Amino acid sequence: MLIVQKFGGTSVGDLERIQNVANRVSTTVKKGHDVVVVVSAMSGETNKLVGYAEHFSSNPSRVEMDMLLSSGERVTASLLSIALQEMGHKAVAMTGRKAGIVTDNHHTKARIEEIDPTTMQNAVKEGKIVVVAGFQGVNEDGDVTTLGRGGSDLSAVAIAGALQADLCEIYTDVSGIFTTDPRIEPKAKKLDKISYDEMLELASLGAKVLQNRSVELAKKLNVNLVTRTSFSDEEGTLITKEENIMEKPLVSGIALDRNQARISLLGVKDRPGIASDIFNKLAAAEVNVDMIIQNKAVDETTNIDFTVPVGDLHDAKAVVEEFVKNGEIQDESYNEDICKVSVVGVGMKSHAGVAAKAFSTMAQNNININMISTSEIKVSMVIDEKYAELAVRSLHDAYQLDK
Ligand code: ASP
Ligand code: MG
To answer: What is the average per-residue pLDDT within 96-122?
Structure first.
């Protein structure tokens, strides 16, 4: 097999840990696999470099920032390659450029445009372990670019896609994806397998493990992703396409998003095009609207409620206030003390009653549901923040996710 192994900052956090990574890579190679390794900078290193730049400027040039930040990953890639050579392996460290990673021109948050894997492939053919500095590429002018914070996951997935690797393993300090946050429900179980779409819906559970952008890319490129820990031999969680999952559980997990706020618009003028005006302005202000409820109009006005991430609240308020000023909305109110709980599972596509069970679980616990939205594989409910943990635990129980 050809395996891409990506090691995050904590996994390469000091010299001893880099040696542990070398041992793990060596074991994989000795099992007969070809390995391409992608590394992050040592944990804390990128922040340290940012701090250095801020010593000189509050607004440093993004071109220089990319030169600077990309160096952290070069350090770990070369050290790992040296450690592997010392163990008797043939290994070669590569920058993003040498690995053939071409990006657009958006310095400090570039997008990968294409990868020419020839140099990596030739090295693999020569029996070498390729160690690539993650998080970086090069634009068409030859300037170094970086992919945005946390971007070495993206490097790994993109490289796995370009090499058509059998597996892309992402090593962190977390052992995989759980049925819910184990800090809320200690009975949470690690999932063996989960589909890309479920993983994207369960983002809050994977937040510490994987960027959503990487999961989206893995889905697009059809890369089998595994998240696992580098601190033990425990098996991780495979994230793959739905067709690869034989036994589809009804529900895979319960996600909690505390980072939501509710905006209520009262006395909204009931005319054709008003929703379009409001939500287009919100979109133009880059406010991410999630759930929307519009009530039946009475006396030519209606009420509209919607949710946004707390971080977008400020921009959303500015938009809403314009409509209040011109008289198309009478009043507005905001509530940050809410959260969104979601029940996620591909199995609900073919089974009725999943939503009903979620609602009765809330009812049994006397939790009022403020808003509801559903998709093919998800039921989401907005509830008061104070019930967040109770809701998560009782849903986890209701769908028997600890079994
Ligand atoms: N070192 C970069 C960061 O800290 C990239 C990464 O770790 O994925 O954001
Ligand atoms: Mg990281």
So the answer is: 97
